[in-house]
Amino acid sequence: MRFLSLLRTLFGSSIKQRPDPEFARLPEQEEPLSRFLFSTKSHFSIEKKLVKPGAFLPEPTTLETSVFRTTGLLSSEIWAIGERHVAKPSGRTLRARAELLAKSVYSVALNIHPDNNPERHATIVGWPTEKNEQLMLAAQLAAESALNLRT
Amino acid sequence: MPIPTLGLGPYASDRAISPEAQRLRNVHWKARDAERSQSVSIEEPYLRTAAAIVEAAQEANRPNWDAHNGLPVTQGTLTQAFALLDLLPSVLSEPEVAVHPDGEIAFEWMFGPRRFLSASINASGRISFAALMGHSRLHGTEYLLDALPEPLTYALRQLHKAAA
Predict the structure, then answer these.
(1) Handedness of CA A128, A130, A133, A135 (dihedral sign)
(2) Could you tell me which residues are beta bridge partners of residue B137?
(3) B105 and chain A: CB distance < 8 Å anywhere?
(4) Which of A37, A72, B73, B155 qualifies as a cystine partner to A43, CB 3.0-4.6 A?
(5) A41, A86, A87 ranked by CB distance to B98: nearest
(6) What is the reported pTM?
(7) Is B35 exposed, middle or buried (0-12, 13-18, 19+ CB in 10 A)?
(8) Does the distance separating the beta carbons of A61 and B69 come in below 8 Å?
């Protein structure tokens, strides 16, 4: 314990803050979620101002869809999260975000796993393995979401 | 309008490789070229969609192309997408083309937030589709044969009828 205390004293300012445990809880029905979008062809239609189903389809290996919980954040702060945690690590250009409420996820019998790593991160889980069933659910999420273009 | 073909040549939709197939392919494409020159207005949407397939595939030609661990489009999937394009009736409105995280190429008709069809094809010719038609939903799996699968025809008819 003394050793840990010494470490904190010496390096306290550079040790990362722990994620807020509030975001380790399941999102409430009305809680907003953001999915960051990178492809103008595959994730959304600028012309029709619509989010495409592909924006919500799960990652093929994990069958999870990464989202961030954005309650209480300004729009600029949401973009900053997308830049820091998704765009920068992948080297891709953040183009837009799809915004939806947690209840839209629950209403199609999918679940949200609040891993809170990094803070506010969660994944949409419970996807079926059949592609056509995934597509149907992703289409419903897309239909319930709002497109927010990055200007 | 020249179409980049990613090394497929102009015969992207043809999957046969024998000399006989090559001969038939040449006959088919000569006939198609002749037909095109007489019906430019019909073929322009075809060419635009073909170009959109290539553009989408080029955007998704490497792992993690979507920043969400998406798989890249394979040559086999690209070939099947062109084969599916050949089966689309020219009377349909032009689809948008997308790539899904699993590397499948999707044709999408979007008439509104709750009125659209997405049909994606993989390298084996499996078509996965889902349609929202107001409060009705339709989804399933078909395989690419010599005609557009009936459920897709049905969904497209319904969506076009509602949009008219």
Answers:
(1) positive
(2) B132
(3) no
(4) A37
(5) A41
(6) 0.82
(7) exposed
(8) yes
B52 vs A contacts (CB less than 8 Å) = 41
Output the tens digit of pLDDT for each of chain A's 151 residues: 444 444 444 454 445 567 888 899 999 999 999 999 999 999 999 999 999 999 999 999 999 999 999 999 999 999 999 999 999 999 999 999 999 999 999 999 999 999 999 999 999 999 999 999 999 999 999 999 999 999 8
Contacts 24+ apart (CB under 8 A), B10-18: B12/B50, B12/B78, B12/B79, B12/B82, B12/B83, B13/B79, B13/B82, B13/B83, B13/B85, B13/B86, B14/B83, B15/B79, B15/B80, B15/B83
Q: DSSP state, A79? A: H
Q: How far is CA B37 from the centre of its chain?
A: 22
Residue A47 neighbours by CB under 8 Å, 6+ apart: none
Helix, strand or coil for residue A118? coil
ipTM: 0.86
